[in-house]
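Okay, is this right?
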Amino acid sequence: MSWLRALRETARSGLTIERRRLEPLIAIRGAAGLALVIGVGLAFFGPVVAASSAFGAFQAAIATFQRSWRPRPVLALVSGASLAVSTFLGYLTGAHLPLFMALLVLWTFLAGLTWAAGPTGGIIAASNVGIMLVTITLPTSVAQAAVHAVMIAFGGVVQAALIVLLPVRRWGAQRDALADALAAEADYARRLRHDPVAEFDPVPLMTARSAAAVTPRQARHRPAELHGSRGLAERIGPVLASLADPAVGVPAEGPERDRVRELLAAAASVLDAAARAIRHGAPVRLPAPAVAALRTPDTGAILTGAARRAARRLSALLADVIETAEGDGTKEARAEADDAADTIAPHRRRPTLLRLVPVVLWAMRAELRPGSPILRHAVRATVVVAVGYLIGAALPFGHGYWAPMAAVMVMRPEFSQTYARAAGRFGGTIVGVFVATAIVQATHPGAGPAAALAIVCALLMYLLMRTGYVVGQACVSAYVVFLLGMAGEAWSQTVGERVVLTLVGGLLAMISYAVYPAWETPRLRNRLGDWLAAGGRYAASAVDQYADPAERGPEDVRAALLVSREARVAWQEAVARAQHEPVRHRGLSRTAAEDAQHALAQLGRAAMLMEAHLPEGDAIPVPAAAQLADALRRATEQGAKDVRERRAPRWEAVREALERWDEEDERRGRTSDPVVRNGADLLLESLEEFSRALDAGAGVRPGTSGAGRS
């Protein structure tokens, strides 16, 4: 899209106010911790120290709202401690501009690289840089700077203590993630009733997998209903797909199809009931019609072959889901269930905070390479913050930290987020600064009333921060104004001065991305090639299980599935980011991208069908399956290279492997399992559809790979 349209779309996104579920108890707890810290600061140290300590408590509470599976008290402690260190070091160098600029450049660059460890770390690090620019102006001596640093860290400790003493929905994030995964399976079952070849979105299962990673301490205290359910959810999806698909299940119409629709509806109701129970920690309440539909003996009489096997597996899995959601059974029984679930979805360990440090450092070091979007973001942020600080210091307004603070708080590695947040920050700042400054200049509140107003703004921020960036920034701007007003007149500014400095910071952030971008659009073909290669490995792993069931196990299929899911999500996220970028990819049209995405989704669905019916260890080997698996691996690897080089892949090698399979069956006078044989045909059809999509796209060249054209 054009620059004008891109700016308009991102600005609209940044100014959008959404209706989201509010969490008033968590907001009140965060505001209470802030009030406690401000009260202690005012009582023992005065308003200036209270102001800096309030920044620590405020930022620590915001850190606990980030989307992270790490314990909330840990996030609060890390945020408070890191801001305290930043403030103290910043004050020590603040009197010497060259030395402070060196520290600011280093700190901002490291904060930019921290995005390599995830958005939570990146947001906390960026906020520390922005708030540091304010807090270093408050102390007047090294001793006072040390006191301010201690009080800032104290703010993080208070917020962490309140989270432990006053828990709100303990394990709530993990419950929601697991419940969303079960609800996604329920939605998939309903869609399969009307569309037997519907696609399944793996994102909820991937989120649940991330949420399931726990520290050793968490593992000892995890609720019983969070044990094993994720593994069951992973196993239900392929069974639902195989039950509904006409290629391996039942005909498209007739009594068998009607029975399948009943089973799918019943499964959806049971999964929804289990999801509600896990989300709220309540007993499972099963709808009577669903229970009756699952228990009727007609299934064995109506369904045959693979469909009957899938129906029996579905009933058994749903029974396990209900038992797990109830949290029933002894500790030994739950441990046995965990071991069984780990066969499909292994238990994941989250490193402790100390063991996480080398992991984060390694991730940051890995981004120090040409072309890395994270490295480009770090360079952009560093230059913008340094230039913004110098411009703010040169302008005759005083307190020029508003410019670099605005810049570092809005900058993200992606174009759309940076521009949307810049628009939202500027709009929110105008409202928040205007209202707060007008109140301060009209009423001249003392330290106590100003502190109370700041706490109210913080409460509104915590309550409304998920409804839109512009709303949150209005509350944050007003909070900063009231907090500095509490510290005294020395930190006062007019509305115009603060707005102008914020505008300078936002413009610098936007210009930096235009001058030194990291566009996602030119990398779309690489992402698509990665997904093709990962999907091919997943399909090959599933096919390979039939070649020698005694020697192979589901672990290889599971590992390949996870890689394929990650590649699919990376592609989808890249497409979403590219849609808002003011650049055009000449080698991949939007229609071709959508068709190719659909084809690869069907490739994954075909592999999932075979995964639902993996043979037992004593099953008869199918040697031709090994040849097909090898052809799939080689062809999709070469096909991924073709995609990256703007060629449409060819699949003659896969077709030849299927023809040899049919010849071997004919020579031996037997027929292979229709599940795996029909699934193999679906794999080839998906690959051919993928090539047709790219052939229809602009700018492709005929393929020359050994995989051949279909």
Remarks:
- The CA atoms of residues 298 and 625 lie 35 Å apart.
- The two ends are 34 Å apart (CA to CA).
- The first helix runs from residue 3 to 15.
